[in-house]
Amino acid sequence: MALTAVNPEILSMPSPQALPLRYLLAEDGKTWKKGEFCILTSGTVTPLVASGSTAVYGIFAEDQATSTSTSSVWVRILQIGTRLAMSVMTSGTAATAATAEIGVKYGARGLSNVSYLDTGTASGQFQVVGPLSAYDEYSDSQFDTDAAPGRIIADFTAVS
User: Fold this and answer.
1) From the CB of residue 148, how many other CB atoms can be counted at a distance below 10 Å?
2) Where are the domains of the chain?
3) pLDDT tens digit string along 18-57?
4) CA end-to-end span of the chain, whole Å?
5) Contact at 8 Å (CB) between 72 and 17?
6) Would strands 114-122 and 44-47 be described as parallel, antiparallel, or unpaired?
7) How far apart are the C-alpha atoms of 2 and 29, rounded to whole Å?
């Protein structure tokens, strides 16, 4: 059975409230899917791109199917201590959860409207807690370790 990568899922937050929701100006000419990571560039939000990043700012709260043009959009701002379930890749290639070492901080990468933990981007904002199967009784540990893309749990540790 092949695994399909999905955008990060918020498992817990540092406060009982939802992540702050902000209406921010988006970079022109972009599209994205709800749940994708965004970064800040020249005062606007833009989707995380194919190259590895250590500057994740938030999560898009809505789909944007047509290219933006001087548009403001809803973004959930990531806070230190937010715990996420994330799909894993290494420098653009889907990877198993075993490639993400527990306790190590990695960056993120976007590919085809999905945001991943990128084990090819060191010293990033997401610290690996463990494979998803260790925290989800319905997750199959064989897929976490033997199939790609694997799914892990990571904590957001730094604001860009």
Assistant:
1) 19
2) 21-77, 80-156
3) 899 999 999 999 999 999 999 999 999 999 987 888 999 9
4) 37
5) no
6) unpaired
7) 33
